[in-house]
Amino acid sequence: MSAVLTHPVPPPRQESPGLWTLAWRRLKQDTVGMVSLGVVAFFLLMVAGVATGIVAGDWNKEKGVSYANPSFMAGAENLEAKALQQRDAAKAAPVDLSDIDPLAPRYKEWEERAAKISITETKRAETLPLGGDKWGRDVLKKAMKGSEISILVGLTAALFATVLGVMLGAAAGYWGGWVNDFLEWFYNIFTSIPYILLILAFAAVAAATGKFGKGILPIILILALTGWTGIYRLIRAEYIKHSNREYVKAAQAIGASNASRMFVHILPNVSHVALVQLSQHVVSFIKAEVILSFLGFGVPVDMVSWGTMLAEAQNELVIGKWWQLFAAGASMAILVTAFSLLTDSLRDALDPKIK
Amino acid sequence: MIPTLAGVILLIFLLFNWVGGDPAHVLAGKISNPEQIKNIRKQLGVDEPYLVQLWVFVKQVFTFDFGRSWSTNEEVSRILLTRIGPTLTVMVPVLVIETVLAVIFAVMVAYVRGRPTDRGIMAICTVAMSISFLVYIIFFQWLFGFILGWFPVQGWSESFTKNLLTYAPLPIMLAVAVGLAPSLRLYRSFFLDEINQDYVRTARAKGVPEKVVMMKHVMRNALIPILTNVGILLPGVFVGSFLLEVFFSIPGLGREIITAVNRSDFPVIKAVTVYLAMLTMIINLLVDVMYKFVDPRVSFK
Amino acid sequence: MNDNLLLQVRDLDIRFRIDRKSEPFQAVKGISFDIPTNSTVALVGESGSGKTVSAMAILGLLPENSIIPASSRILYGGRDLLKCPMSEMQSIRGKEISVIFQEPMTSLNPVFTVGEQIAEVLRLHMGMGIRQAFDRAKELLAEVGIPNPQLRVNSYPHEMSGGQQQRVMIAMAIACEPKLLIADEPTTALDVTIQKQILDLIANLQSKHHMSVLFITHDLGVVGEIADHVVVMQNGLIQEQGSVRQIFEAPQHPYTKALLACRPRLDRRPKRLPVIDDYLKGDGRPHHLEERHRGSAPGDQFILEVKGLNKTFFLKEGLFGKRAVPAVKDVSFKLPKGKTLGLVGESGSGKTTVGLTVMRLHDATSGEVLFEGRNLLSLTDKEMMAYRRRIQIIFQNPYASLNPRFTIGQILMEPMRIHSIGKDDRERTEMAFQLLAKVGLAEQSFYKYPHEFSGGQRQRIAIARCLTMKPDVLICDESVSALDVSVQAQVLNLLQDLQDEFGLSYIFISHDLAVVKYISDMVMVMNDGAIVEMADSDQIYLNPQQEYTRKLLSSIPRGLEKAEAA
């Protein structure tokens, strides 16, 4: 009995919903949860679009003038762009050296020939939807491309970490004995080193030797290999709890094998914990990736991530160009808030408690 | 503790000496002096079998001699000792202020649980936690330092008091502001867990007023997980917030680590990692001892 | 208001808000009863009857989502407690009306000493100083029978046993000499011998301090022993109330009659236990009350023989040490075919460990378990598989013994698949349907999940699961202990029917002496890991030889002896 009396249970319904159906029903009633789900789904769709090149394919093109203003600030001054234009204009008028220049008679001929070859030089835009960066790249498109990297890294790393944590946690919790002792020792090693330090140590080796792979693989591996510990702890505790429950003993009594008990019996009872952990880790890995990319240890330089955008933004702020900070910061904030709220709603839907 | 320490040493060794391997070609790009590279390789015994290298490393750990930094040629041990001061100057106040504020706000919020104030503050926390620390630093450094000029944008000095009063406040405030939200959420959940316990029902049944229930009965029990949490945060105090140190040019341990990673300065990274791991284990031991005084259910082994 | 009445409950209606969409759940549907001064009122009912909720309403200790309409009143000392402001309630709580709860371990604050917690109440309501309050606390501890109160006053709750913790709770409750003590199932979580002590203590304190006691319980035996008045609740309504004599000797309502009758008695053994439906439906009378004889016979064949069974647990101590905890010490017995061996003992007696070790769910330290001549403990895992289906077990907790993520169908099919029973899944499904019918469940249950069933129904499913393998021996480990009395009767009847039909042999483990006597042919009494006494069930109860057995038997609440079945 608890301080609040146990909630009286209303009579059961006619159909037989399993855990996931029940959870889905509860989630549907949670407005905040559904909105977050929608936002996350939107981001995922956008990532799919960016990854296939449908959306923001030309993020790298220098479409706008340097530090182009955002569309809603069209009238504002853009001193840097003007300065560059003046410099270019100054270059455009060469000094006339025709009297000492031996090639002078041929210039006219060359100009005529050059004029025949059409080069489409698109005029650089004065404003872009969310502004431009130093090279005139569209900030909005960069933010979208950046989301692809961050979300991809976050999801993949979280998936790896969860699989790793679940397998190790299940083994330690179920078997106990020396398996548990060994895994606990392993866990202690990883947790004695402060988390950021561990990541940086891995990052240092990865950067120095390239032995972790190329592109976004190193950072995914780093995050997964250092981030499994929290999941391991929880899943291990769950397995210990469930291994002592009577339904597992009953399974043993009827002759179910160890593998069957671990994965067919216990795992379905633990999977909702794993799912919530996965969701939480996506959030923390996205945040970590941004910081690592900012410092230069994350994604390679030819890719854009919210972190690299923020790195550029740091210097831009001083000259008054705030839109990259805003675009990267805001899009990340929206996604992370939505994901965090979704995680909370997921947890409530899967494991409802009396508030 | 000893097996874990052995494991940490093994892990760092495997990571840097085995996976990391021969630093020659890495260093070639960063250090122009071939003599220096040759010396380093000799010092590490890179051509020797792994077991010898491991023994070298173990010796280094226990004699506190990691040789010299590959980039600055400064003695690694000196680097560690001089950088720890600034880090602590910033991080210790952060931890203290953040914990005190988090506990106070968590109690208040738990007291009015479920009502709009509670939900509003939790919503603010969620949003606050989703904005990257980077954005906070960039923005507030610009706002308070650059635009308003209330604090210096960057810098550090030799004098402790000057540091504490002029250079440290902005970084400290930033760290507290960012760290408050997650701690508040966590401590709130501790208080709510305790409120639902049977002994709280007994206290109410005895006629104890609600405020006393919260401040005396619940608080005393919630202190146990709060203490655990502070224990977990303590090692972080020594690592420092490298972002803060980088942005504000504070010559602390965090910034040193970042520099070392940038320059592939393995000795520094190895040393810091091993020593901080040892420190974490010692802190854990101390926290375990403190438990005895906080939780009467715990007995000494 | 009548001078003899301390508290009056009128038209109490309590509902709980579940969520925004559904109708609030009505737990108490308008009840009225009185608590006279200087008397004990028992509030009796099964789980879900609303008895606890009604009592908690008196002190306003209901959860935040409770709704009580203005028409409900609880009259005490010239006021309506339901309309009192919180500050007034707080001055009544602990001082004029006190509560003790069911689980003393969790009801005491773990970080304060026992003395501090008792002193708190004295300082709060009696304005005592620290010194004075502590001295009084020591006196109170002595009064409730705690030895060494000088020392114990500085103990923490976890350093005391369950019985002592409950005494501390009682000390806290009577510290300010309340007029009413509400006791919510205070002995349900305690061993039977301790239960008797606590009941005696409460009775003594009641008469010494002239206070009234509202005693909530599901156990009619207890009611008979201590109550002056009885209020019987079912599903949020009062079905009957009256003096204890009236209720026990001349019950009027069928539900009361059923409650009294379906509990196994010590002096009779009907062929089938009466169940609630016997009284509420049909002609309102149970049938099949002819007696059944039980006991061992000279021609008995033995299907299971246990010789010298030992089980010692090794707990880690310090860095490398181990502490030996012997749970089962040299236990030997024989189980006759088609009969029931009852295994009785208090918590920690080792009775459950015996069952688990026989099934090889624990590894025995030494000994033999001979099944049809073969020693089960010496078989390899592979050899054991053939025998697994022949000895099965039904656990105590119906809420934990079925996998929440499996449908009933999956639960029943799994053992059949493992042991290759039935040709294919279609045949197995047929067999599953038949078994569900045999244990009294609808065919539709096959497709449902455990959470859709009640405790008693889940035990039936557990029984069906065992039956899929057509076992010879069934170990019932406290299988009915967690069930309400009426449901318990149904499950016991089911077990009996199955034994009659299939010739199953049972090892029935329980702490409930009345149930064990009813269902067993022979009874084995265990204490501290060893067998104290073993004899035919009738013999043990009529002629206990050992001291411990006598002590156990004398602790059984005798309230029922006064009753006569309808």
Descriptive account of the structure:
The complex is a heterotrimer of chains A (355), B (301) and C (566). Chain A is mainly alpha-helical. Chain A has helices at 19-29, 31-52, 79-92, 104-116, 139-175, 177-192, 195-209, 217-227, 229-243, 246-254, 258-295, 306-318, 323-350, and strands at residues 64-70, 125-128. Chain A contains 13 helices and 2 strands. The two termini of chain A are 16 Å apart. Mean pLDDT of chain A is 81; it is low at 1-13. Helices cover 78% and strands 0% of the residues of chain B. Chain B has helices spanning 2-19, 24-30, 34-44, 50-63, 76-111, 116-130, 133-147, 160-167, 169-195, 198-205, 210-239, 242-248, 253-262, 266-294. In chain C, 35% of the residues lie in helices and 24% in strands. Chain C has a 6-stranded mixed β-sheet, sandwiched between helices. In chain C, strands 17-18-19-14-20-21 form a 6-stranded mixed β-sheet, with helices on both faces. In chain C, strands 1, 2, 4, 5 and 6 form a 5-stranded antiparallel β-sheet that branches. In chain C, a hairpin with a 2-residue loop joins strand 10 and strand 11 (237-243). In chain C, helix 15 (408-418) crosses helix 16 and helix 17 runs parallel beside helix 18 (485-502). Chain C is globular, with a radius of gyration of 26 Å. Chains in contact: A-B, A-C, B-C. The interface between A and B is large, with 56 and 60 residues.
Please bin the fraction of helical residues of chain C. 25-40%
Radius of gyration of chain C: 26 Å
Helix content of chain A: 55-70%
What's the story with the biggest beta sheet of chain A? 2 strands, parallel
Shape of chain A: elongated
The first-to-last residue Cα distance of chain A is 16 Å
Number of strands of chain C: 21
Mean pLDDT of chain C comes to: 88
- Mean pLDDT metric of chain A: 81
Task: Give the amount of beta strand of chain A, in percent.
Answer: under 5%
N-C termini distance of chain C: 37 Å
Task: Please tally the helical runs of chain A, counting DSSP H or I stretches of 4 or more residues.
Answer: 13
Structural class, judged by helices and strands of chain A?
mainly alpha
Quaternary? heterotrimer
Give the low-pLDDT segments of chain A: 1-13
Rg of chain A = 29 Å
Secondary-structure element sequence of chain A?
Answer: HHEHHEHHHHHHHHH
- Proportion of residues in β-strands of chain C: 15-25%
Show the largest interface.
A-B, 56 and 60 residues
Shape of chain C: globular
Number of strands of chain A: 2
